[in-house]
Amino acid sequence: MTVISAIPDTESLTLTVVAQLAAPPARVWQLWVDPRQLERWWGPPTWPATFTAHDPRPGGRSSYRMTGPDGTTANGWWRFHAIDELRSLEIDEGFADADGEPDLTMPTTRMRLDLSETADGTRMTLVSHFASVEQMQQLLEMGMVDGMSEAMSQIDAILGEG
Amino acid sequence: MVVDEDVATDRVFAALADATRRDIVRRVIAQEASVSALARTYQMSFAAVQKHVAVLERAGLVTKERRGRLAVVHPDLGTLAVATRLLDSFEALWRARIGRMEDLLAAPPPPRNQPAD
């Protein structure tokens, strides 16, 4: 695992995750801005995501749909707040209704990504700021964490192919 | 019951919306402190700190215990544990996502044809 540290802050409801990735920032950036690459890691294998819109520039929006094992779908959106090509981006993300329109009755999460080049790749820092405990529970119920063990076994399977 | 929980959660977040109160929680998690020691730390009146502590007490985030002439403030780890557990779940979520990222980075061209066996 390349995750170096994960620091939850209970008072400010912030989670900071730092990871070291074995690829240059330009390659890691593609994982975030290319929707075909993004959808391969955003959702767990049991709830794969399909991005129907992805506009990585300030004010730009993204829409995605996640489909669960029983065919249930859950929609979400991103809004790009700030973007500094190859270095950082800041988004708000939240739930969407069945038509993919942001559900404004649901709270949003602010997330910031920072990439910096290191001798052996990229240091990636992610800070998620949650609005409330209820919101965190809603996100978890949406199935985003579901299938964690499947995700791990899928990784093992792919590594085993090589 | 659900309504009670909502009210309790609202109290927790209202209590933590203030920077001084968040700092009091952080401090007493690290080490219990008396109200007068906290007042010295923040250069605030005893009464002002007393009010902050009372808000945190009503939210169930700290408890106050009288020890001789001192009022000692402790964290209530039960309430804080709920938020911690949820943050832990998000940590697991991100660890899994980063695992999938690593996987994509290790094998840039996705395999198009799987061997039949």
Using brief descriptors, characterize the structure shown.
heterodimer; A: 162 residues; alpha+beta; Alpha-D-Glucose-1,6-Bisphosphate, Chain A, domain 4; 4 helices; 8 strands; 22% helix; disordered C terminus; B: 117 residues; mainly alpha; Arc Repressor Mutant, subunit A; three-stranded antiparallel β-sheet; 5 helices; 3 strands
List the helices and strands and how they pair.
The complex is a heterodimer of chains A (162) and B (117).
Chain A lengths: L2 E7 L4 E8 L3 H9 L1 H4 L10 E6 L6 E7 L5 E12 L3 E9 L12 E10 L2 E9 L3 H9 L6 H14 L1
Antiparallel strand pairs in A: 1-2, 2-8, 3-4, 4-5, 5-6, 6-7, 7-8
Chain B lengths: L1 H15 L2 H12 L2 E2 H8 L3 H13 L3 E6 L2 E6 L1 H30 L11
Antiparallel strand pairs in B: 1-3, 2-3
Helix pairs in contact in B: 1-4, 2-4, 3-4
Notes on the structure:
The complex is a heterodimer of chains A (162) and B (117). Chain A is built from 4 helices and 8 strands, in the order ββααββββββαα. Chain A is of the alpha+beta class and 162 residues long. Chain A has a domain at 25-129 and 136-143: START domain (Alpha-D-Glucose-1,6-Bisphosphate, Chain A, domain 4), CATH 3.30.530. An 8-stranded antiparallel β-sheet of chain A has the order 1-2-8-7-6-5-4-3. Chain A is globular, with a radius of gyration of 16 Å. With 117 residues, chain B is mainly α. Chain B folds into 2 domains: 2-75, Arc Repressor Mutant, subunit A (Orthogonal Bundle), CATH 1.10.10; 77-107. Chain B is built from 5 helices and 3 strands, in the order ααβααββα. Chain B has helices at residues 2-16, 19-30, 35-42, 46-58, 77-106; strands at residues 33-34, 62-67, 70-75. Chain B has a 3-stranded antiparallel β-sheet with strand order 1-3-2. In chain B, a hairpin with a 2-residue loop joins β2 and β3. The longest helix of chain B has 30 residues, at 77-106. The N and C termini of chain B lie far apart (55 Å). Residues 111-117 of chain B have low confidence and may be disordered. The interface between A and B is large, with 45 and 37 residues.
